[in-house]
């Protein structure tokens, strides 16, 4: 049973560019959440998608947007990249009727 | 606003020692608490999930306890091994699928 799959693993982008990160949830999960983890910090919640809609959002600017597809996979888009967007981006999936999250291995984004 | 604190920030112990990692949270109205392990540059691996109605969970050499009234959880690791070296993160959720709020983690080094 595949867990949460994220792609790409690593990414280097130039300031001002746009980036798209992808996530496939664990089989049976219908909810996808995205977190940003800066070096030495705990993960910070970006947003959560359920039934193809953004259900909750953390304290992140509108440059961060997302999408959930009918197969429950999800994308995170970041526009106008800043140096401070460099971080590990983690995707977590869960089932709406149960407790607990399963995390992917993350995408390491470096903005230069 | 929920805040999670983990003490100590870093810990170095000789192999074979029993150790305790601490997690405290400011709002006791939590739904569940989850302990994760994170290896350098990697994603999160769930270790133990404690629901608000439970007081502890055990998995192998790991035991996690929860005291909601005092806003505290501890992760006990028995007979530590070098392979236990990692960062341990504590996270709380206010309801079934609300975003997790993380601490900054405790970086553990077990010396052979």
Q: Summarize this, please?
A:
The complex is a heterodimer of chains A (112) and B (112). Chain A has 112 residues and is mainly beta.
Number of strands of chain A: 11
- Number of helical stretches of at least 4 residues of chain B: 0
Large-scale geometry of chain B: globular
Individual helix count of chain A:
0
Low-confidence stretches of chain A: none
Task: State the helical fraction of chain B.
Answer: under 10%
How large, in whole angstroms, is the Cα Rg of chain A? Answer: 13 Å
How does this model look, in words?
- The complex is a heterodimer of chains A (112) and B (112).
- Chain A is built from no helices and 11 strands.
- With 112 residues, chain A is mostly beta strands.
- The model of chain A has no long low-confidence stretch (mean pLDDT 94).
- With 112 residues, chain B is mainly beta.
- Helix content of chain B is 0%, strand content 56%.
- Chain B is built from no helices and 11 strands.
- In chain B, the strands form 2 sheets. In chain B, strands 2, 4, 5, 9, 10 and 11 form a 6-stranded mixed beta sheet that branches. In chain B, strands 1-3-8-7-6 form a 5-stranded antiparallel beta sheet, with no helix packed on it.
- In chain B, a hairpin with a 5-residue loop joins β4 and β5.
- Chain B is globular, with a radius of gyration of 13 Å.
- The model of chain B has no long low-confidence stretch (mean pLDDT 94).
- Chains A and B meet through β4, β5, β9 and β10 of A and β4, β5, β9 and β10 of B.
How do the helices and strands line up, and which of them pair or pack?
The complex is a heterodimer of chains A (112) and B (112).
Chain A: E1 5-7, E2 10-13, E3 19-24, E4 31-37, E5 44-50, E6 53-57, E7 64-68, E8 74-78, E9 87-94, E10 102-103, E11 107-111
Chain B: E1 4-7, E2 10-14, E3 19-25, E4 32-38, E5 44-51, E6 56-59, E7 62-67, E8 72-77, E9 86-93, E10 101-102, E11 106-111
Parallel strand pairs in B: 2-11
Antiparallel strand pairs in B: 1-3, 3-8, 4-5, 4-9, 6-7, 7-8, 9-10, 9-11
């Amino acid at each position: 049973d595949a867990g949460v799959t994220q792609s790409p693993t690593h990414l280097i982008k130039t300031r001002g560019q746009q980036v798209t990160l992808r996530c496939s949830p664990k089989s049976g999960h219908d909810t996808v959440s995205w977190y940003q983890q800066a070096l030495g910090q705990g993960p910070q919640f970006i947003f959560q998608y359920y039934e193809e809609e953004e259900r909750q959002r953390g304290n992140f600017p509108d440059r961060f947007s997302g999408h959930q597809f009918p197969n429950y996979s999800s994308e995170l888009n970041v526009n106008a990249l800043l140096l401070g967007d460099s971080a590990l981006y983690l995707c977590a999936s869960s089932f709406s009727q149960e407790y607990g999250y399963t995390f992917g291995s993350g995408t390491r984004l470096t903005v230069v | 606003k929920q805040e999670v604190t983990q003490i100590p920030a870093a810990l170095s112990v000789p192999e074979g020692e029993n150790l305790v990692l601490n997690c405290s949270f400011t709002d006791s109205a939590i739904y569940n608490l989850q302990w994760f392990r994170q290896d350098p540059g990697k994603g999160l691996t769930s270790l133990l999930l404690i629901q608000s109605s439970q007081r502890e969970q055990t998995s192998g050499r790991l035991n996690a306890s929860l005291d909601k009234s005092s806003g505290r959880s501890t992760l006990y690791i028995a007979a530590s091994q070098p392979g236990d070296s990692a960062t341990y993160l504590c996270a709380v959720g206010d309801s079934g699928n609300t975003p997790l709020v993380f601490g900054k983690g405790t970086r553990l080094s077990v010396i052979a």
